[in-house]
Amino acid sequence: MKLTFYFILFYSFCFSQETIDLTEVSYTFDVNLHSYTEGIPYKSRLYYNDSTSLFIYNRINFEGAEGFFKKVGDRTGRFNGVRFYRNYDEEGYKFYLNFNTKELTSREVLMEKYEVTVKEKDIDFNWVITEESKKIGDYVCYKATTQNFRGRNYEAWFTYDIPVPTGPWKFHGLPGLILEVHDDKDLINITFNTIKQNSKSKAYYAKPNSKDVYNLEEYLKESFRLYLSYVNNKKAMIATGQMRSGDPSAYVNIEYNDEQIKLLDKYHQIEYNTYEESLKKE
Fold first, then answer.
1. Looking at residue 2, what is its pLDDT?
2. 91, 107 in Cβ contact below 8 A?
3. 152-159 vs 103-110, strand pairing mode
4. What is the C-alpha separation between 245 and 146, in angstroms, rounded?
5. Helices 258-281 and 216-239 meet at what angle, rounded to 10?
6. pLDDT tens-digit profile of 167-211?
7. Which residues of the chain are under the pLDDT cut of 50?
8. What pLDDT, on the 0 to 100 scale, is given for residue 189?
9. How many Å apart are CA 255 and CA 241, to the nearest integer?
10. Alpha carbon distance 83, 230 (integer Å)
11. Strand partners of residue 144
12. 144-165 residue pLDDT tens
């Protein structure tokens, strides 16, 4: 009887550890939503099988560091340079897509502190596929465009050679793997590096599932509220001498709407003014 029990236990353990084969695609996800002369070139990964995919970026072990701190230029000419920093996340931002249900489940981190799950379904990119083509790596890719997807115009390059309807970040819905994405303001650039079949890196492959669940509108509203609160608190701390430097913040969400972006520009100006005043005192 004991032998049977241990056999069942062993079998169950082995079965629970068994995972399906995945394909791994590495990208560089370069994001620059401020007026800096350079963005953040995240090392990112896409894992997929026949029915699901998972994209991850901003992860410590992908980057090989906990973060960075450097001085960069300012495109507006208001400053010679600003101190630019980033703390990478232990798990990373994750985007899990089910090809059949068309549900996207994301792991986001509010103000780089509070883990939340964001759920979306049936995202409509309104892709327009063109005849324009080019070679990316070993693959012939075709250009597709989408206008005003959450405030931005994008072009994506996908290949029919790999007929899976997924790609980096939230991009999906084309008749082949997306290898490259650019917005028309050169602020978001996703470029292909390598692809590896039957990846053994399966430890990350799980659907995000935190206790706090938002839809996209709720998440963006809370994200924006926390950002404005952060700017106001920092301004108050500098005014009372609790903080010496008012470096402009590097926290911006890709999907803020037009109204939020206008208000964000106003708060960026507050941050820059505060930063300039703090430099005079140093």
1. 42
2. yes
3. unpaired
4. 40
5. 20
6. 999 999 999 999 999 999 898 999 999 999 877 667 789 999 999
7. 1-18, 250
8. 97
9. 34
10. 18
11. 129, 156
12. 999 989 889 999 999 999 999 9
3-class state of residue 92 by DSSP: coil
| Residue 55 structure tokens | 């994209």
Residue of 124, 143, 214 whose CA lies nearest to 182: 143
Cβ atoms < 10 Å from Cβ of 147: 11
Contact (Cβ atoms closer than 8 angstroms) between residue 231 and residue 249: yes
**Per-residue pLDDT, 256:** 77
* 3-state SS class at 224: helix
For position 243, what pLDDT does the model report?
A: 61
- Which tokens belong to 270? 């507050």
Q: Where do we find the tokens 């990350």?
A: 204
Q: Are 94 and 56 in contact (CB under 8 A)?
A: yes
| Spatial contact of 120 and 103, defined as CB atoms under 8 Å apart | yes
Strand-strand pairing, 213-215 and 114-121: parallel
Q: How far apart are the first and last CA of the chain?
A: 77
Q: Is 206 helix (H, G, I), strand (E, B) or coil?
A: coil
- Residue 265: its pLDDT value, please? 66
Q: Two tokens at 108?
A: 């986001």
Nearest to 273 by CA among 249, 242, 244, 246: 246
